[in-house]
Amino acid sequence: MSLKTASVLVIDDDVDVLTAVRLLLKPEVKEIVIEKNPENIRNLLSKRDFDVILLDMNFNASINTGNEGIFWLKKIKEFKSKASVIMITAYGDIDLAIRSLKEGAYDFIVKPWHNEKLIATIKEAVRQKEAKSAGGASNTASVFEKELLGESEVMQDIFYKIQKIAPTDANILILGENGTGKELIAKAIHQFSLRVTKPFIKVDVGALTESLFESELFGHKKGAFTDAREDRAGRFEAANTGTLFLDEIGNISLHQQAKLLSVLQNRQIVRLGTNEPLPIDIRLICATNVPLAELANENRFRKDLIYRINTVEIVVPPLRKRGTDVLLLANHFIKMYRSKYMKPEMELDKSAKEKLQSYHFPGNVRELQYAIERAVIMADGNVLSAKDILFSPIESALVEVEEAAQSNLSAVEKNTILKVIEKNNGNISKAAKELGITRTALYRRLSKYDI
């Protein structure tokens, strides 16, 4: 089925929206039906089948204010419609739109939309509906079998979330410890997005110095600075029409954050040494090993930037919280390195399994991978036992040092807050001002330290 043979129903109580969508889609689809009153949905669906339904998130009716779109989405499902439902939402209702994905919506479009984006989303919905009807197998399994592995409930939830959010253009923030596979998740989101044929560009922004940050991200003109010997496009330009993955976003300075926020708000960059703005069209994915609670510290990270990069967040669990996934991954790495190093078939004995399942893996999946690679290289037979699996003492030592340092910092912060509050006779506003944080931020810390 092509878009030219598709039938589309648009439901919105805004006449201007209905008119705009009808004019846009009329040349593109076989049939377009517009409806102002959602109460007529049942009657419309009883008379004909639609391939795609565009459904507004909010109506003037008082059925369930703020959730009208969810209400009517559920009704469409109750009516047994096989149409793919695309929600139309305002920027402020994105949380509700994300919830609609869990309720069975195919995707959502944010007002005001780009016409090309709306048409592409409808086209992909029609294509996937046709593939499903024909019994076509999704490529989900093959991707996850090769790179992202996990049978635990937490990982299955992440896989489900990836498939739901990937076809949208929502900005994603991936949170998790080092070595948990944040980059693999970013790649999977790109693979299932409508930008899959476009570039996927990764930048470790946490490693960029102040002097390199703008040049690396936004590009420069020849002669803009001493070593600028030629014009160079930055990573934003390289990722244009595709996906830009900014790793370790939690480690950039407030000055760098301001530069980044400006670009994301204006959707354009200016190369160093020029005054010419260049429009950019990217899907943004960010990752950090800094917990969201710490990012909320306004002295460390701009709140407006968090809102901009965090339409949807994915929290990747550490390996120690993934149950038997450790054995699944271990067997995967055994197979990988047995083939690479031309070794015979290998398996884990009982002692090896027990050792893997009892270890806390401070280095997460990455540490497991290195441990299995070393074991496969050094093994003499085709059975790996506990003595063959050695973990790096460096990882454990680093984690212990980090945890001790964090504990000490928390104690210092708690004592400082107590002293300042006491000094100001319990006046929270004055205490917050003296500490250089907002009242809200201070209340968060009072709750954190149970003060």
UniProtKB/TrEMBL annotation:
Boundaries of every Response regulatory domain copy:
7-126
Q: Where is the Sigma-54 factor interaction domain?
A: 148-377
InterPro entries reported for this sequence: AAA+_ATPase, AAA_lid_NorR, CheY-like_superfamily, Homeodomain-like_sf, HTH_Fis, P-loop_NTPase, Sig_transdc_resp-reg_receiver, Sigma_54_int
Q: Which residues carry this modification: 4-aspartylphosphate?
A: 56
Q: What keywords would UniProt list here?
A: ATP-binding, Nucleotide-binding, Phosphoprotein, Transcription, Transcription regulation
Quote the Pfam families the UniProt record gives.
AAA_lid_14 (PF25601), HTH_8 (PF02954), Response_reg (PF00072), Sigma54_activat (PF00158)
Protein origin, superkingdom: Bacteria
Signal peptide residues are none
Biological process (GO), any one: phosphorelay signal transduction system
Q: Which SMART domains match?
A: AAA, REC
**A Gene Ontology MF term for this entry?**
ATP binding
What is this protein called in UniProt? Answer: Sigma-54-dependent Fis family transcriptional regulator
Organismal lineage: Bacteria, Pseudomonadati, Bacteroidota, Chitinophagia, Chitinophagales
